[in-house]
UniProtKB/TrEMBL annotation:
SUPFAM superfamilies: Mitochondrial carrier. InterPro entries: MCP_dom_sf, MCP_transmembrane, Mitochondrial_Carrier. GO terms for biological process: mitochondrial L-ornithine transmembrane transport. Its main location: mitochondrion. It is a multi-pass membrane protein. GO terms for cellular component: mitochondrial membrane. Belongs to the mitochondrial carrier (TC 2.A.29) family. Solcar repeats lie at residues 1-61. Transmembrane segments: none annotated. Keywords: Membrane, Mitochondrion, Repeat, Transmembrane, Transmembrane helix, Transport. This is Uncharacterized protein. It is found in: Mitochondrion membrane. GO terms for molecular function: L-ornithine transmembrane transporter activity.
Length: 126
């Protein structure tokens, strides 16, 4: 739905998400609804593994750094550090997630939006 009608040469193919789903079912069957599903699965599996490993490691590293003698100010708040560490770890992990998964996301988009039904569904061939 989001990529249709982006140029002036082509009119919109679908009038609504329901119309899109019905036309996909008519032309390709149930497989039409699942087009790009394998690429999405790879993207989410790799991305979530990278995200949570990065999150836990960066959180561990930051806690160790704040508790080390290098940063022994002694008057920092524990709650404020936990919130700040969580925010920083989440931000770092989000950046690493998209760095690792952007190529798979591009392959998924190509698979899902290509009108050729005989296009390879392998996300590693793009």
């Amino acid at each position: 739905m989001q990529v249709q009608g982006k140029d002036a040469m082509h009119a919109a193919r679908y009038s609504s998400p329901l119309d899109c789903a019905l036309k996909a079912l008519q032309s390709d069957g149930v497989c039409g609804l699942l087009r790009g599903g394998l690429a999405t699965l790879f993207r989410e599996a790799v991305g979530n593994a990278v995200f949570f490993c990065t999150y836990e490691y960066s959180r561990y590293w930051m806690h160790n750094f704040l508790d080390s003698p290098w940063f022994s100010s002694g008057n920092h708040l524990v709650l404020a550090n936990d919130v700040g560490i969580g925010i920083m770890s989440g931000g770092i992990s989000g950046m690493v997630f998209w760095t690792a998964t952007l190529p798979l996301d591009v392959a998924k988009t190509i698979i899902q939006t290509d009108p050729d039904p005989h296009l390879s569904r392998n996300p590693f061939q793009f």
